[in-house]
Amino acid sequence: MLPLETNGSEDLMTDLFTYIDGHQDEFVQSLKEWIAIPSDSSDPLLRKELIKMVEITAERIQALGATVELIDMGQEQLNDGQSVPFPKAILAQLGNDPSKATICFYGHVDVQPAKMEDGWITDPYNMTERNENLYGRGATDNKGPVLAWINAVDTYKALNQEIPVNIKFIIEGVEETGSQGLEDLIKGNSSFFSDVDYIVISDNVRLSRKPALTYGTRGDAYFFVEVQSGTKDLHSGTFGGIIHESMRDLVYLLANLVDSSGHILIPGIYDDVSPLTEEERKLYDDIDFDLEEHQNNSGVNTFLYSTKEEILQHLWRYPCLSIHGIEGAFSGYGSKTVIPGKVIGKFSIRLVPDMKIPVVNKQVINHLKSVFAKLKSPNKLVVTLQIGALPWIANVNDLQYEAARNAIRKVTPEMIRDGSTIPLARIFQDLTKKSIMMLPIGGADDGEHSQNEKISRSNYIQGTKIFASFFLELAKLHKDLQMNNDPLTIKTSQQNGS
Ligand SMILES: C[C@H](N)C(=O)N[C@@H](Cc1c[nH]cn1)C(=O)O
Ligand SMILES: [Zn+2]
Ligand SMILES: [Zn+2]
């Protein structure tokens, strides 16, 4: 293997980029193979596929030469009393040279549900290339970015070049359902993180066409609100008009969560939201954000707000409440005349600094109970918090942000926050105290969680290049930092009179 010194870093970068360009079809083929596995973590019937997905990821990382550990995550208890095994989590390590920086890359290989009948143009699990875009579930969230990182490492290996940093991986299979069990995994493996200097996540998208670095995400408090009127579904002709319908109660409860201007109706919910300072307000002015383009990406014709500043603030620094669905309600084609016996409404509140999960939980329960009381319904109401993930904000002066800016090279990346949630971001920050950075490679129009999710071929391949060059840039800055902090170096240079 060639040590770094044998090749100037610019020459090396050129070699790396040439290799990546030349092998892009292989990288695209790997993504196609990953997308073919329906690793939907929310569907227990697909659990075998999810477990297979984690296994092939582990094999792929092992093939890089890494030592891989698969950690058992126990059993997932389902609502119907049954249980299924959680997919294992991957902890892997490639290189342990104490003179090098150690980066831990976190990602997930589970996906959101996807069905043709949701409105996909092509099979979500048969990746299809159209207009240089790679369509398929998980293309951008998060299989493409995880593979791009692996491709970057692979490129060094293929060129027989020394990787300038030590790399660790933590890859999981339940991010889309809230990363259950991952907090305990991190607590139980503190030695894995003890020599990690930097944690990198690439699991969100850019704000515009411009590359970006993300330094904050919202959290999420996800609730189930269950209303039960009886033990079974009923004929609406035979029983309609004489019973208290669970659906009527639930619809009333859901309608009392948020008003038409987006204001959350739960008393006290805004109390802990950190106030907007003048300094923060100014940050929004400089952000390059095309409102019209964003609106086109969304497929809706009117947003709740009309200025760039309001839109960004309501995505990044204010909470929002979304109603996601109703389990148990009739939702198929046709006109079934049924009264459901039990329905479960699902909604979530994106959390921002300094909201607290137990406080939000109490406010939601109290509010729903008081709205329900007005109905004087004999039905049974149960409210449960399913996912509680805190928001995350990083220090953008950390060294790895500078390295990423250097790696992106041609343009200065936009410094952004993100309205979505990566539950582990805040958990990593609180438990490991390490520097965390999000380096998105997906585009603003990728359609995460939506029909026809994609990543552009260009973002996938350019992203692979950014990661490969990030290893070099970080290695350089880390070495400089070590030299400056190393008492021996300081002493030697003082002795030399410099
Ligand atoms: C940003 C990331 N790719 C993602 O999609 N995260 C999910 C995590 C989550 C939150 N509640 C449930 N899952 C998201 O933000 O929806
Ligand atoms: Zn994701
Ligand atoms: Zn997602």
UniProtKB/TrEMBL annotation:
The active site is at residues 110, 175. SUPFAM superfamilies: Zn-dependent exopeptidases. The keyword Methyltransferase does not apply. Binds 2 manganese ions per subunit. Residues 230-373 form the Peptidase M20 dimerisation domain. Keywords: Hydrolase, Manganese, Metal-binding, Metalloprotease, Phosphoprotein, Protease. InterPro entries: CNDP/DUG1 (IPR017153), Cyt/Met_Dipeptidase (IPR051458), Peptidase_M20 (IPR002933), Peptidase_M20_dimer (IPR011650). The record marks 235 as: Important for catalytic activity. It comes from the Eukaryota. Its cofactor is Mn(2+). Mn(2+) 2 binds at residues 108, 141, 203. Belongs to the peptidase M20A family. This is Peptidase M20 dimerisation domain-containing protein. It comes from Hymenochirus boettgeri. The lineage of its organism: Eukaryota, Metazoa, Chordata, Craniata, Vertebrata.
